[in-house]
From TrEMBL:
<keyword id="KW-1003">Cell membrane</keyword>
<feature type="transmembrane region" description="Helical">
    <location>
        <begin position="218"/>
        <end position="237"/>
    </location>
</feature>
<feature type="transmembrane region" description="Helical">
    <location>
        <begin position="430"/>
        <end position="450"/>
    </location>
</feature>
<feature type="domain" description="Putative mannosyltransferase YkcA/B-like C-terminal">
    <location>
        <begin position="602"/>
        <end position="687"/>
    </location>
</feature>
<dbReference type="GO" id="GO:0016763">
    <property type="term" value="F:pentosyltransferase activity"/>
</dbReference>
<keyword id="KW-0808">Transferase</keyword>
<feature type="compositionally biased region" description="Low complexity">
    <location>
        <begin position="564"/>
        <end position="578"/>
    </location>
</feature>
<feature type="transmembrane region" description="Helical">
    <location>
        <begin position="43"/>
        <end position="61"/>
    </location>
</feature>
<feature type="compositionally biased region" description="Gly residues">
    <location>
        <begin position="524"/>
        <end position="540"/>
    </location>
</feature>
<feature type="compositionally biased region" description="Low complexity">
    <location>
        <begin position="511"/>
        <end position="523"/>
    </location>
</feature>
<dbReference type="InterPro" id="IPR056785">
    <property type="entry name" value="YkcA/B-like_C"/>
</dbReference>
<keyword id="KW-0812">Transmembrane</keyword>
<dbReference type="InterPro" id="IPR038731">
    <property type="entry name" value="RgtA/B/C-like"/>
</dbReference>
<feature type="transmembrane region" description="Helical">
    <location>
        <begin position="244"/>
        <end position="265"/>
    </location>
</feature>
<feature type="compositionally biased region" description="Low complexity">
    <location>
        <begin position="697"/>
        <end position="719"/>
    </location>
</feature>
<dbReference type="GO" id="GO:0005886">
    <property type="term" value="C:plasma membrane"/>
</dbReference>
<dbReference type="Pfam" id="PF13231">
    <property type="entry name" value="PMT_2"/>
</dbReference>
Length: 729
C-alpha cells in the first residue's frame, strides 16, 4: 500500500511571497497595491512607499508658507476669475497679455484653485503630486528591466535631487513638464517591448502635452525616443518606420492644437502673446522659447550670453560650476561611467534587448539635456536642469546594478587561469570602485564649496568621506576575498556616500525659505543676478531668500477670491502696508515703475477711483503687474511683457482703452522709455493728470494736480497719471 506524502509545510522563502489567490477581487488588488507583486522580494514595496512618503514630505513640508512664482500665481488667479483668461493663459483677468509660456501648467493649478480656493498651497499641491508621481513612474520603469534594487536606488536618487526638491515646492511649470516626459517614456518602453502602435501614440501625446507646458524644452528628449524605437522595437524596419510616422502625426497634433487655435483667432479678440515679437504663438515657439534659448538671439531675451547672469557662462563645465553644480551634478560622474560601461557590456546583446534599450533612452535623456543646458547661450536658470534628473537617477540605479553585476563577475574571475574572457571579466571588476571613488570625491568638492554654511553640510561631508572610503576599500577587499557579505555591505556604503550630499541640500530646500521666482537648493552660492528681466525667474537677487517666504497672508486679494487663511500669494519680496508690492522698474529703462513705489496706499486709492474701469492700472512689466494683481485682486495691464520690450501696448490701443473707460491710470517711467513706449509716455504726460503722492499718502486731502503745474517729484520725473475720455479728444 502506497502512502501519499503530505504537502510541504515549510514557509515561503524569506525573499518572496506566495502568490495570492487568483480571484482578482477588490481586496486582492488592494493587497497587491500595498505589498507589491508576489514575485518581488518582500522589502520592495515597503521601500517604495517609504521613498514616496519621504519625497512627499520634502516637497510638501510647511506647504502653506511656499510663496511660489508671483508671475504664474497672478496668471492662475486671473484664470479663476475669467475662463477666457484661463484658456489663453493671460496674466490679467481682463485678457490684455498672456504669460510667455503655454497654459497647460496654469490649467492644472487653476483647476486646483477653482476646486480648493485660491492660495499658494492650492497651487503648489499639484506640483507635489506630480513630483511624487514622477518618482513612482521612474521606479516602475527601472524595475521592469533592471529589478527592484536598481529601481529603489533610482527612485531615491530622483527624490533627493536637490533642484528637484526645490522646484517641486514651487509654482513654476517644470514639475509638470518632467512628469509628462516620464509618461512619454513609459509609453515608449511599452511600445518597444510589444511592437504595438498605440503605446507609441500615447507616448507622443504625452510629449505633446509637455510641449504645451514649456514648449521646445519638451522636445529635447525626442531624438532619444525616436532612436530607441527605431533600433530596439519588435517588428520589421518598415513597420517601425510606419509606427514612427503615425506617432509623429500624433505629436504634431497634440503639440500644435492650442497654438493653431490661438493664432487663428483675430488679435483684437484675444490677449497679446507675451514674449513674442509679432503677437503669435508660433513666434514664441521658435524665438523666445526656442532658438532664442539656445543661441541667445530672441529679441525678447536680448543678446547672446544673457544666461550667464543666472547659471554661469555657457560651456561644457557649466553644470559643474558653483551656481549649478550643487543643484544637479552630484551623480553625473557615476551616471556617465555607468552609461558607457553598460552600453559596452550589452554590446553583443540582440537588437531588441530591453536593458540596452533602457540604457540608450536614459543615456540619451541625460546627454541631450546636458548638452542643451551646458551650451545654451540664451537665458538659462539653474532650475531648468530638473528636467535631466530622471535620466541621471535612472542611470545611477540601472547602471549601478549593471556595474555591480560586472564587479561580481570580475571578482569571481580573480585567481582563475588567465583566459581572455576571464581577463576581460577581471578588468570589468575595477569599474565600480572607480565610479564610486570618482563620484564620492566630486561630492567632497561640492561640499567643500559650502563649508562653513552650517552643521548639516559638515556632517554630510564627514558621512561622504567615511562611507566613500569604506565602500571603495570594501569593494577592493571583496574583489580578492570574494566574500559576499563584505561586497554587499560595501555596495550599501556606496549608496550612502553618493546620496548623503544631495540629501543635505534637499533637506535645506525643504526647511528654508526659497525664492519662488528662481528656486534653488542648498546654501546661497551667489548665483542668479537680479534685475535682468530676461525671463520669468530673472528677478532674483540671489539663489536663496530669507525671512519673507514664510510670511502668511490672512485674507485673499481684496478684489475677490477665496484664499484660505495662511496662504501667501504674494512674491517673497513684497511688503504690505506702505512698502513696495513688487514695484519692479522696467528693465533697460522701459516705461513703467520709474522708481515710483507702488504701495498698498496707492492701490487703495486706485481701487477707490477706478470708476468702473476694467483695468485698475497699466504698468510697464509683468513683474510689477503680477504683484499688484495679487495685492489688489484686480486686473492690471502689463504694457511691455516680462522685460518691458514686448509691443503689447500701442498708442492707438491705449487711446481706445481710455476713451472707452476701460482704463484710467498709467504709470510711466522717469526717462520716458524707448521706442513706442517713449511715444506713449510722452502722450500720457502731455494729456494726463499727474497724481501727487500726497493724494494717497496718510493725512492728505489732495487728489490730483495738473501735469503741467505740479511740483510733485513723481509728476516731474514720471509716476502715476489719470486719463479720461476727454483727454483723448
Amino acid at each position: 500500500m502506497t502512502t501519499l506524502a503530505p504537502p510541504p509545510t515549510s514557509s515561503p522563502s524569506s525573499r518572496h511571497r506566495a502568490a495570492p489567490p487568483a480571484d482578482g477581487g477588490f481586496v486582492a488588488r488592494g493587497r497587491r497595491l500595498v505589498t507589491g507583486p508576489a514575485e518581488d522580494p518582500r522589502w520592495t514595496r515597503p521601500a517604495l512607499w517609504a521613498i514616496l512618503l519621504a519625497a512627499t514630505a520634502l516637497y510638501a513640508w510647511n506647504i502653506t508658507s511656499i510663496s511660489g512664482n508671483s508671475f504664474y500665481n497672478a496668471a492662475v488667479y486671473s484664470g479663476t476669475k475669467s475662463w477666457k483668461a484661463f484658456f489663453f493663459g493671460a496674466l490679467d483677468s481682463g485678457g490684455f497679455i498672456t504669460v510667455d509660456k503655454p497654459p497647460f501648467a496654469l490649467w492644472v493649478m487653476g483647476l486646483s484653485a477653482r476646486a480648493l480656493g485660491f492660495g499658494t498651497w492650492q497651487l503648489a499641491l499639484p506640483m507635489v503630486a506630480v513630483g511624487t508621481g514622477s518618482v513612482a513612474l521612474l521606479h516602475r520603469m527601472v524595475k521592469r528591466d533592471f529589478g527592484p534594487v536598481a529601481a529603489t536606488v533610482a527612485a531615491l536618487a530622483l527624490a533627493l535631487t536637490p533642484i528637484t526638491v526645490a522646484i517641486n515646492r514651487d509654482t513654476n511649470p517644470d514639475p509638470i513638464l518632467v512628469f509628462l516626459m516620464l509618461l512619454g517614456a513609459a509609453g515608449l518602453f511599452k511600445a518597444v517591448r510589444t511592437g504595438r502602435l498605440m503605446p507609441l501614440v500615447w507616448s507622443a501625446v504625452a510629449i505633446g502635452f509637455a510641449f504645451n507646458t514649456k514648449m521646445m524644452q519638451a522636445y529635447v528628449v525626442l531624438p532619444a525616443f525616436f532612436l530607441v524605437y527605431l533600433w530596439a522595437a519588435h517588428g520589421s524596419l518598415g513597420r517601425r518606420i510606419r509606427h514612427l510616422a503615425v506617432a509623429t502625426t500624433a505629436l504634431v497634433v497634440s503639440s500644435a492644437w492650442w497654438m493653431v487655435v490661438v493664432d487663428l483667432i483675430p488679435a483684437s479678440s484675444r490677449p497679446y502673446i507675451g514674449g513674442s515679437t509679432d503677437n503669435t504663438v508660433w513666434d514664441l515657439v521658435i524665438g523666445y522659447n526656442g532658438f532664442g534659448r539656445i543661441f541667445g538671439a530672441s529679441s525678447s531675451v536680448g543678446s547672446a550670453g544673457n544666461g550667464a547672469s543666472f547659471g554661469g557662462s555657457a560651456g561644457v563645465y557649466r553644470l559643474f560650476n558653483e551656481i549649478t553644480g550643487g543643484q544637479i551634478s552630484w551623480l553625473i560622474p557615476f551616471a556617465a561611467i555607468a552609461l558607457i560601461a553598460g552600453l559596452i557590456l550589452r554590446g553583443r546583446a540582440p537588437r531588441t534587448d530591453a536593458k540596452r534599450a533602457a540604457l540608450m533612452l536614459w543615456g540619451g535623456w541625460f546627454v541631450l539635456h546636458y548638452l542643451t543646458f551646458a551650451l545654451a547661450e540664451g537665458t538659462f536658470h539653474p532650475y531648468y536642469v530638473t528636467a535631466m534628473a530622471p535620466g541621471i537617477a535612472a542611470l545611477a540605479g540601472a547602471g549601478g546594478v549593471t556595474l555591480y553585476q560586472a564587479f561580481r563577475e570580475g571578482s569571481a574571475a580573480t585567481g582563475a587561469p588567465p583566459a581572455r574572457a576571464e581577463s576581460r571579466a577581471r578588468g570589468r571588476g575595477w569599474v565600480l570602485p572607480a565610479a564610486v571613488a570618482t563620484s564620492a570625491a566630486w561630492a567632497i568638492v561640492l561640499l567643500q564649496r559650502v563649508s562653513g554654511s552650517g552643521t548639516l553640510y559638515t556632517v554630510a561631508e564627514i558621512v561622504v568621506g567615511v562611507t566613500g572610503t569604506v565602500a571603495v576599500l570594501g569593494l577592493l577587499a571583496g574583489r580578492f576575498t570574494r566574500r559576499e557579505g563584505l561586497i554587499g555591505f560595501a555596495a550599501l556604503a556606496a549608496v550612502v556616500a553618493l546620496l548623503a550630499g544631495p540629501a543635505a541640500y534637499s533637506v535645506s530646500a525643504a526647511t528654508s525659505a526659497t525664492n519662488g521666482t528662481n528656486p534653488t537648493a542648498g546654501p546661497s552660492t551667489g548665483g542668479g543676478m537680479g534685475g535682468m528681466g530676461g525671463a520669468p525667474g530673472g528677478a532674483s537677487g540671489s539663489s536663496r531668500t530669507s525671512g519673507t517666504g514664510g510670511r502668511s497672508m490672512d485674507e485673499p486679494p481684496s478684489g475677490g477670491g477665496s484664499a484660505p487663511s495662511g496662504s501667501d500669494t504674494r512674491p517673497s519680496g513684497s511688503e504690505t502696508g506702505s512698502g513696495r508690492t513688487g514695484g519692479g522698474q522696467a528693465g533697460g529703462g522701459q516705461m513703467g515703475g520709474g522708481g515710483t513705489q507702488v504701495s498698498s496706499a496707492m492701490i487703495t486709492y486706485l481701487k477707490k477711483h477706478q470708476d468702473g474701469a476694467t483695468w485698475l492700472l497699466a504698468v510697464a512689466t509683468d513683474q510689477t503687474a503680477s504683484s499688484i494683481i495679487l495685492e489688489s485682486g484686480q486686473p492690471v495691464i502689463s504694457m511691455g511683457g516680462w522685460s518691458g520690450s514686448d509691443n503689447a501696448m500701442t498708442l492707438a490701443k491705449l487711446k481706445s482703452l481710455v476713451k472707452s473707460g476701460k482704463l484710467h491710470y498709467v504709470i510711466v517711467s522717469s526717462d520716458g522709455g524707448q521706442g513706442t513706449n517713449s511715444e506713449i509716455a510722452t502722450w500720457v504726460k502731455t494729456h494726463g493728470t499727474a497724481v501727487k503722492s500726497s493724494a494717497y499718502s496718510s493725512g492728505s486731502s489732495s487728489t490730483t494736480s495738473s501735469s503741467t503745474s505740479s511740483t510733485s517729484s513723481t509728476s516731474s520725473t514720471g509716476g502715476l497719471y489719470r486719463l479720461d475720455a476727454s483727454d483723448v479728444g
